[in-house]
Amino acid sequence: MPEKKDEQASGAWAEDGIVQRATRAIKREIPELIVLSDVCLCEYMSHGHCGVVKKSTSIATGHSDSGGATAVRSRVQQYEIENDVTLEILARTAVSQAKAGVDVIAPSDMMDGRVAAIRAALDRAGFENTPILSYAAKFASGFYGPFREAADSAPQFGDRRSYQMDGANLLEAMREIQSDIEEGADMVMVKPAMPYLDVIAAARERFDVPVAAYQVSGEYAMIQAAAQNGWLDRERVMMESLLSIRRAGAGTILTYFAKDAAKLIS
Asked: Scanning 87, 173, 183, 247, which has the fewest C-beta atoms within 10 Å of its C-beta?
């Protein structure tokens, strides 16, 4: 967790930020280990959104139904994510992480144009060979709950549906993935994994880049809770869930089961 949060996500690109410090520590101890970093701002924003928020207030006026002169006024607070301003912070964060030793930059914010902005910033800073793993199809999902609670990153108002994807729209997912590849993404991610196996399969069939999938905290928590209640065999269902993601076409799986699965596989 960052030591403080603000409305500019300053902890995301700080030289002594949590990701930067962790990366340098890892590289000192195990220099050959490949480090991938999640580039997003929600964990660093005081309001919990993935971008800079512009606030505005509108005033609605009217008259009483009885025809009298009494005016009825109400103030409505409105919020808008400033996409292009956010791109500048994301690009600065990506460069900061690359300077700390990150090997693969993985933006997960879902702002429009962020892959192109990050690619350009990395190239200008001398990191032309640092690849980008784009969370290209990140859906507005209820499966992120346990992580948001742990990271204290749930939005303080509204939700993320204006920039994360509609779970009913497969065609939009394909357009998002194609756009990110055209902007310079070397790999793409689908998140969550199990509720979107068809998206993983469609991406694998259509695009000639590595496809990854993220088995998120809610997917993990469901299996853990059911196993703790004795409703299913934890190891068997864990491996079955991972197999389904692999069968759908994911060449890489991010999962909280990584250590336990690796022990069984080895």
From this structure: 247
